[in-house]
Amino acid sequence: MVGRKEKMKILLKDFRIIIWLLALVISLVVLIPTTPGVVVKSVSQNSPFKDKVFPGDIITWINEKRIKTPADLKAFENYTGSVRMIVNGKLILGYVNGSLGIEVAPVRKALKFGLDIGGGIRVLLEPVKNVSTKLLEATKEKLETRINVFGLKEATFTIIDVQGKKYIQLEMAGGSISDVKNVLEKQGYLEAFIPKIVKLSNGRGLLLVGGKKHRIEMINNTLYIDNKTVNKTFYIERIEFKFVNKTDDTLIFYAKVFDSKDVKKVCMINEPGCFVNLRCGYLRGTNKKMCYFSFGIYISQEAAERMKKLTQDMRVIYEIDRASGESRKVLENGYLLLFLDGKLIDKLSISPDLKGKLVTSAAIEGGAPTREMAKKEMRFLQTVLSSGKLPVELRIVEVNEISPVFGEEFLREVLIIGVVAEILVAIVVSLRYKNPKIIFPMLFVSLSEVLIILGVACLIGWTIDLPSLAGIIATLGTSVDAQIMIIDEAIHEKKKYYTLKERIKRAFFIIFSSAATVIVAMLPLMSAGAKVMQGFAITTILGILISVFITRPAFGKIIEELM
Known about the structure:
Elements: H1 4-13, H2 15-31, E1 38-43, E2 58-62, E3 65-66, H3 70-74, E4 80-87, E5 90-97, E6 102-106, E7 112-113, H4 115-118, E8 120-127, H5 133-149, E9 155-162, E10 165-173, H6 177-184, E11 190-199, E12 204-209, E13 212-219, E14 222-225, E15 228-230, E16 233-236, E17 239-246, E18 250-259, E19 263-266, E20 276-282, E21 289-299, H7 301-311, E22 316-320, E23 327-331, E24 335-340, E25 343-349, E26 361-368, H8 371-387, E27 394-402, H9 405-433, H10 436-460, E28 463-464, H11 466-491, H12 500-527, H13 531-562
Parallel strand pairs: 7-28
Antiparallel strand pairs: 1-2, 1-6, 2-3, 2-4, 4-5, 8-10, 8-27, 9-10, 11-18, 11-24, 12-13, 13-14, 14-15, 16-17, 17-18, 19-21, 20-21, 21-26, 22-23, 24-25
């Protein structure tokens, strides 16, 4: 007769029990949030912490008070005075007069919840003109590129039809309206210009392009190029020029180097043939910190030809570098002006090494006072350069911010229903088998199965939404059926001519066959494009695989030892 301790030792040495317990421990570790504080969703334009605090930052402390929930932060909404705030482990100071202007959410490092549970925003985008479905699909792909590059990963785009009119719908869990508008409201038509300054003498001057001199005159606000009247937009050497401004003795023109269609590749990470750098330091002789970024881009051959012609006649001069205090070579008026939808977004220096050279690669450089600001600016430039101009002009017709309250209530209800269901299962099993030794392992294994499913979802970054919860509930139902089947096979009196191991093997044959049938039935829901049902299908398949290969073998071994 084997005692209880001996049985426990046998169980703990069995590989099926070891795998089950290991999976359970790992799941518990990844599911317990370890990051204190609240996460920033958005910062208003009028906030005293604008450009100091950014979406995704973690706030843990304000004026000697620990911040654990969004309610803790709301205590400072009507506050007036100096504020000392710990953000990402660093102290940030500001003066508040009535409102912090910061929207936050609880830190959920473990599970990611979908829009229907965790809240978020839903945006409806309408094409300004009637367009084909194919063109709208291309626009949707561009928007997905922008959202993903900008770091707003939990976003889905869908083309919907409302009374014969097509729209693009964006749903983003846990996002803020300001984040989305910042990316979506821009048409994204990028233009890069080099300024050309012409000094006038007696109303005349010279514009140098590609080693050639072109005579410029301005008479009674009429512009003449080589004695020919031109509009404010004209072409020289197949390069587009725009007349910008005139002073007493100076004319300013912008020469277009490239636009969205000329950008062939944007470096997003360091890889062969690509570079991305971000460094910080103090300006020489001061305690002022500056962070600089640079990343590579590849432009078309035509754009490279234009760059060569426009830089060929630039003068190389020397200036003092503010960061190092040393003299360095620069190009006079050697700037690349980036315009997005007609608005200047950045002014970048052109390296003297590029003067008059035909190069299809270039470095985009910039800086900001903090690492966070520099990183955000770099990410924005990478986003715009990589996604290009939208094929279709869109306007935002509807924005809905969905509160997570209903989702949290639903989670509580699901938890209550789950507890009630487990109690009912325990009562039925007690009446059927009248053996407490069977009931407790059954309930514990069922609970562990849910935890392992959630743990795996956390590890792979799967978003839990309502269909996913339905999949977990469905998996629990099949799990209980399998457990009852194992118990029946183990204790059925009419099958005494089979050994206990043989009876459990018979049960597992049926269980594996049933699981395979369910998985095959779920596959069409994953591949047919029915996004509403993908969460249900994936979670159901994930739960069944965990049950078949982890929890059910462990439960079978436990029943084998108990019986």
